[in-house]
Amino acid sequence: DAGVIQSPRHEVTEMGQEVTLRCKPISGHDYLFWYRQTMMRGLELLIYFNNNVPIDDSGMPEDRFSAKMPNASFSTLKIQPSEPRDSAVYFCASSLTHNEKLFFGSGTQLSVL
Amino acid sequence: AQKVTQAQTEISVVEKEDVTLDCVYETRDTTYYLFWYKQPPSGELVFLIRRNSFDEQNEISGRYSWNFQKSTSSFNFTITASQVVDSAVYFCALSELDNFNKFYFGSGTKLNVKP
Fold first, then answer.
1. Distance from CA of residue B38 to its chain's centroid?
2. Maximal CA-CA distance, chain A
């Protein structure tokens, strides 16, 4: 059974460029989460969806960040324009239902030069 | 203020030693959940345990055990007879009644198990 799939695994881009991170949750999971991990701030929740609807985006740093979930099997996190301080590991996670354990993807290591 | 504190940044032990990872949490809710996740060098976080606030019984799973004490707001994790494969970063997390889907993660404890 496939887990949460994220792409790309690594992304290197230049400041000002648009970056799109992708996630495929586990089939049948109702909740999808985007987290960011940095040394300074640890793991931060950016946004989460329930049944493809954004529920809480209070963790999204600023307007440069946007996330979508057009269907139950796909979500994107977009940064436009990217800045060096966005460099981090971005994790996608999904859960079967409310307050269940999270299944994490392998993460996307983003470096903005 | 930090809702979840993992004071131990990094711990090194020799294989077969027992090791305890500390987790202290802060919440005003009477209903909440506590979690432990493991992040091996490969990077993916792996769920270990979930405990609700009404269940203070200690849990044992193989070499892993968890000690939940509401009186001290702690949820400590012990690995008995540690192995090199236990080397990872371990995160404690809290979710509260007002939003069970919002997890507050501690800063993590890096465990190095040397052969």
1. 8
2. 38
- Decide if B36 contacts B48 (C-beta within 8 A): yes
Tens digits of residue pLDDT in A28-46: 999 999 999 998 889 999 9
d(CA B104, CA B54): 19
Pair B41, B51: CB distance under 8 Å: no
Give the chain B residue nearest A32 (alpha carbons): B101
Binning pLDDT at 50, 70 and 90, where does residue A1 land? low
B26-41 pLDDT per residue, tens: 999 889 999 999 999 9
Contact between chains at A107 and B44 (C-beta distance less than 8 A): yes
Q: How many CA atoms lie within 13 A of A11 on its CB side?
A: 25
Burial of residue A111 (number of CB atoms within 10 Å: 0-12, 13-18, 19+): middle
φ and ψ at residue A85, rounded to 5 degrees: -70, -5
Q: What is the pLDDT of residue A106?
A: 94
Minimum Cα–Cα distance from B32: chain A residue: A99
